[in-house]
Amino acid sequence: MQVAIIGAGIGGLALAHGLRQAGVGVRLFERDPSARFRKQGYRIHISPVGESALAAVLPAEVRRRVIETATHPGDLVAGFDSSLTKTFEQLYPGAGPATVSAIDRYAFRRALITGLDDVLVFGKQFTSYAEKAGRVEIHFDDGSTETADVLVGADGVRSRVRAQLVPDFEVIDSGIRCLYGKIPLTPGLQVPPDFLRGFCFIAGGDGPGAAFAPVLFRTPPEEYGDYLMAVMTGTQDQLGHPDEELLAMSAEDLWKVVAHNVTDWHPTITDLINAADPTAAFPITLRTCIQVASWETGRVTLLGDAVHPMLPSAGAGANTALWDAARLTEALAGDSLPQYETEMRTHALAAVNESLHNAQRLFGLDLTT
Ligand SMILES: Cc1cc2nc3c(=O)[nH]c(=O)nc-3n(C[C@H](O)[C@H](O)[C@H](O)COP(=O)(O)OP(=O)(O)OC[C@H]3O[C@@H](n4cnc5c(N)ncnc54)[C@H](O)[C@@H]3O)c2cc1C
Predict the structure, then answer these.
(1) pTM for the full model?
(2) What is the architecture of the domain spanning 2-59+115-171+289-363?
């Protein structure tokens, strides 16, 4: 059997490894021009669900690279007000040296690409598919085509595979925008000790909120070293700019918006924001589904954000994509695609609901009505 995967993101790369390990023929098509293309280095929390999926699908060498490039595990989630008074604290047992509990997204993707050179094709943007003579013909924007027995859409929240398979599937704009940035951990920088221990969020009252989390590499990538992830979240009104302005801003101007919104916060936070690398800033629109996409089992299937986009408020999107990859590997190797699709929907819906519940609790955001 020959499987074609669209999208070399977290889920697509994990699936490609799993299928190769299981002896299933696979090719992976990614629209980015190269592995180095997107330095979208935000920190991703890897839960035990993601960790066991990685253990199930990755060859030993790739798993070793993932562990090496992960960040030192944190042990804290804490909340503060804008004067840096702690309002909430939860401690976690620290993870051991052979486990992954948080990882820089860019370093993770680079590690996951290891060993896939002969099956991964960059610069291939999927446009559509057609089922022909018991196979799937796949079309790309350069006019080329490929054929496969099964097509997997692992092409993220704006999936074109899903758009064709489940055209009426509803993805909701949460109204929340994230302005993401990086604060390099240079010698002498004053960082509250809690910010180096785990995920710390600041409630901004009526204005936007912010969060900080450390990326302290076991082995840093060539391009950069340890940093503090900083992200400001708010509606367009709270951030003071409509989408037309926010999404068109340069990285430097985006970071000026963040700095402007923290001018009356505790000086330690203001100083941290001013110490960020302004060229690393980018905006993210937070989208989610309420129901997981559904379709009749055939030669085209989906995994990850393509089928169940969710808010990052449960730290579960990537972990669920990894779970999908491990379960879909078993299904394609064992001819049980319908079971994958049924189990995936149940498993993912629980994560979607948890992220919606957390968003309501943390931000008063109710998207279900
Ligand atoms: C700020 C933020 C923080 C987050 N933190 C966490 C966290 O702590 N833990 C967690 O579990 N999750 C987290 N998530 C969610 C997580 O990033 C996603 O759920 C995860 O990346 C989904 O993986 P995926 O493989 O489905 O999609 P993606 O990783 O988005 O990969 C999709 C791939 O498909 C490619 N592609 C798209 N269209 C095409 C096309 N037409 N042709 C070819 N290729 C295409 C894209 O270029 C991309 O490489 C966070 C998300 C955000 C925004």
Answers:
(1) 0.96
(2) 3-Layer(bba) Sandwich (3.50)
